[in-house]
C-alpha cells in the first residue's frame, strides 16, 4: 500500500490521478502538515474516487494542544466526516511526549468507523513499544513511523522489530525520507507492507507522477 502525503492541491491532484493507493491531505508543508481547507477537500472528493485521509492538526510545532485547540480538532473531525473523509491522521502527546490516551481516544471515538492513523508524533515518544501498545488499545488502525529515527532508513532496525511484534494488531506505515531509491530496500529489510512518501523529487516542489510510479513499481 502506497500513501502519498500531499500538502497542496497540485500534489493532491497528481497523486489522486496516479497509481498511488490513497493520499494524506494536509496544508503547510513547512510546518510538517496541518489541517487542510475543507473547501479544497470537498472539491477533491467531488472529482476523485481514491481514498483521502485528512490531517487533523490545528498548528505546527509540538503535539501538545490547548483546550481550545483540542475543541477545534473535534470540530474538524465532525466537519470532515460529514464531507466524506476516508480516514483521519492525528496525534496528541502529553508534556512528557507520552501518548495522551484520553484525548486521542475521544478523537478516535468521534471518528467512529472511519480509520485513524497516529502520525509521526509517535517517533517522539520515549518508548515506542509502550506507545504502540497504547495506540492499539485506543483503537488506531495505523501508526506512521520512521522507527523513532530521523528517517526510515536510519530507523529500519526498529521498524522491522515493530512490524514483527505488532503488525497483526496495527498497520505499521513506514514514512520519513521514503523514496523510489530506497523503498525496495526498506520493504525487503523490514518486511513492511505499508509505505508513505511525499514523492517530491530533490529540488522540486510538488509530487511527481514518475516518482509515484517508481515507488509503486518497487513494491
From TrEMBL:
The keyword Cytoplasm applies. InterPro entries: CutC-like (IPR005627), CutC-like_dom_sf (IPR036822). It is found in: Cytoplasm. It holds the Pfam family CutC. Keywords: Cytoplasm. GO terms for molecular function: copper ion binding. It comes from the Bacteria. Coiled coil: none annotated. One of its GO terms (cellular component) is cytoplasm. Its main location: cytoplasm. Belongs to the CutC family. This is PF03932 family protein CutC. It comes from Chryseobacterium koreense CCUG 49689.
